[in-house]
Each structure stands twice: as C-alpha cells, then as structure tokens.
Design brief:
Its main location: membrane. The protein is an all-alpha fold. The protein has eleven helices and no strands.
C-alpha cells in the first residue's frame, strides 16, 4: 500500500506540471521561456539544498552530465512553449507518447531484441499520435505547439536513458539541474523573452512546479523506481495524461473531445501492450 500511495503521489506531481504550466502561461499570461527558467532555477535550488542536507558531493566529473543537462533544457523549454496552445491532457499525452517512442528507438538501435507484441503496441501508439496530429476540419491544429511538445518528449526520453546508469540518481538529477541553470539564464538573455509578461502568481506557480513537482517529484520517483521495476515504472506513467486531463477540466475549464478520448485510448493501449510481460 505504501508503494502504491507513493507512486500515485509521484504521478500526480508529474501531471501537476502540465496544469501549472498551462495555468501560468495561458491564464496568467506569463512568458513561456521565463516560466521555464524560473522553474529550472527553483528545481536547481531545492535539489542543491537536498544534496547539502544529505551531505553529498557536487560531482561534475561524469562525462554524461552535459547530455543530461542539455536534454533537460530541451524538455523544459519545449514543454513550456508547447503549453501556450495545448490543453493539459493533450500535451501530457504527446509528451509521454514521444518518450516511449524515443526509448523504443534507442532499444532498437542498441541491438535489443524486440518481440512482436512490443512492435505491435508501439505501432498502435504511433497511430494514435498520428491521429491526434492529423489536421482537423473544424479548426487548425497547433502544429508548432505540438512539435515543441514532441521535441520535449525526445529531450525527456534522452534524459531518462542517460539516468538509467546513474549510481546515485538523486545526485545525478541535482547535478543536471545545477549545470543547466546557468545555461538557462544565458538563454533568457539571448532568446526573445517578454520580461513584462511576469506576475507574482506566475512566478509562484513556476517555483511550485520546479521545486516541489519537479525537484521533489523526481526525487520521490527515484525512491520508488527500484521497488517498482522497469516495466511497472513505465506503465505507471501512462496514468499521467489521464490525471492531467482531469486537472485541466477541474482547474482550467478545458473540454475533452471524443476524438481526443479515442486517440488517447489508442496511444495508452498501444504502450500498455508494448510493456506487458510475456
């Protein structure tokens, strides 16, 4: 029961990032890049404090640190930019669908033996994503936002792949945030950012998203993953788009269309089939 509750809490934290981003950027009018940088700095600050509290070293020596930091930046910026136009549930589904695709591609190119069930499940999930991305006759699809979220999914997939070999995952996550933080500040000066589009509420939501939902959420996730195992850990993340959709309906007055519900079922069913044990 304890493992179930901790896992459920972690999935809620992941889904809350979608709702908080959407709430600050769309409802609060905060600049997306600015939100991403504040979120990054908040996560870096909390994780640095966690390392100090645990008396762990700030280890910059790993050759994978730059890859982890850059993939984290790709995820954070793509995630925030996408939520300028995407509903919470759609964004979460695109993100985690692309994460699964990225990790599947890595498995294929890495020489891993792929069973027929996993090929079939991945094909169904890809078909679901194509259905969601297909132009609708009623309104133009936000292709730029969708593309940003797909890129964010690749970033998070690479970040997850790099983290699999971490001896101390919490320390690795903290160092990735700490290394990425100054790069995020530089990007804040280089990229077109509307500094006037900032509010106390938006900054507060970014801090909550970065420090609590991301920093503490990722730390909690690494604590439960060893007990879950790889397959159950992957399957549990399939609940995030569903939770994010409910959060969008409750807090952002978003609507759920039949097309979205059917494409969601196809994506989640395909990924679930691909992850099933023999």
């Amino acid at each position: 029961m304890r493992l179930f509750l901790l896992t459920a809490l972690t999935m809620v934290a992941f889904a809350a990032n979608s709702v908080l981003n959407r709430m600050a950027i769309v409802d609060g009018g905060m600049d997306a890049i600015l939100f991403a940088v504040v979120r990054l700095l908040a996560g870096a600050g909390l994780l640095a404090g966690l390392l100090l509290w645990q008396r762990k070293a700030f280890d910059f020596s790993s050759v994978k640190r730059p890859i982890g930091a850059l993939s984290l930046l790709v995820y954070l910026f793509g995630f925030s930019l996408a939520y300028q136009a995407l509903p919470s549930g759609v964004g979460a589904l695109l993100l985690f669908g692309m994460v699964q695709m990225t990790m599947f591609f890595a498995a294929v190119t890495g020489g891993e033996v792929i069973g027929r069930k996993r090929w079939l499940g991945t094909g169904l999930a890809f078909a679901g994503l194509c259905w969601m991305l297909w132009p609708s006759g009623e309104a133009a699809s936000p292709f730029v936002a969708m593309g940003s979220m797909l890129i964010a999914g690749v970033g998070w997939g690479v970040y997850s792949l790099v983290g699999r070999s971490a001896i101390d995952p919490v320390q690795a996550t903290a160092m990735n945030f700490i290394i990425a933080a100054p790069i995020g500040l530089v990007l804040l000066l280089v990229l077109p950012v509307n500094m006037a589009a900032i509010s106390g509420a938006g900054v507060a939501l970014a801090i909550i998203s970065g420090a609590i939902m991301s920093g503490m959420g990722y730390a909690l996730w690494y604590a439960v993953v060893p007990d879950l195992g790889a397959t159950r850990a992957a399957v549990s993340q399939l609940t995030v788009p569903v939770i994010a959709t409910f959060g969008g309906v409750l807090f952002l007055s978003e609507t759920v269309t039949l097309e979205f519900a059917l494409s969601t079922a196809l994506v989640l069913g395909g990924v679930g089939l691909a992850l099933r044990n023999k």
